Amino acid sequence: MIAKALTIAGSDSGGGAGIQADLKTFTSLGVYGMTAITAITVQNTVGVFGVHPVPPDIVYGQIKAVAEDIGVDALKTGMLFSEEIIQAVSQGVKHFNLKNLVVDPVMIAKSGDPLLKESARKTLIEKLLPEALIITPNIPEAEDICKFEIKNIEDMEKACKFIYSLGPNYVVLKGGHLEGDTKIDVVYDGKNFEYLKAKTVPTKNTHGTGCTFSAAITAFLAKGEKPLDAIRKAKKYIHGAIENSLSLGKGHGPLNHTWNLSVSFSNDRVDTSK
Fold it and tell me: Is the pTM value of this prediction over 0.90?
């Protein structure tokens, strides 16, 4: 049986984040990807220039159509944008008893543009976090949820405990925004901390990092991996995708989602005449 993963997120016209990044990640990791699109963004490597939200009943309908027909082994949420869309997603998760939910609390784009309405943040915390198996905030998102500054590992541990108290079974607090030669993600399961370390990659091409990481976790969950193993394997995948990132556009370029495959992106054109 092929593993099946659903992403509930926004569309990135630049192809580096959102639905597009999630589907590329699913495919690269051998998982059949499905989508419920929450918003269409006018976006590239420089910024977000427009957002058109999808009606909540259509978001719910996409989840329903996939769940009732194909089935869902694991799923993730990304950009949800509004309170009404979050409520529709929460309803879908409950109605169809969807398991292995990874919540990436997308609030702000790499460019600094807002991707979640201020009024929707309380709804995200109250409606989706209790349903989540894993939540994957970065430091600014965790600060928004916790309402205190995070400046070091001790602060990250404190934030993990607070976010865990809101309902998810695992908290993965990404440390990419802290200075240093090594980036450390802190994982908390309610009892123990685990520290996932990776050497800092000197590149500005990190557009879609959060989407890709959460999608990789979702893919490994869909394939039957236990949560901690899924998180560890996703960490290795995302590090490779950053190391092999693509210099496209004038701003923050995208990751290389197919770095782990024998056929990957390169600057060389493939001769298809043979």
Answer: yes
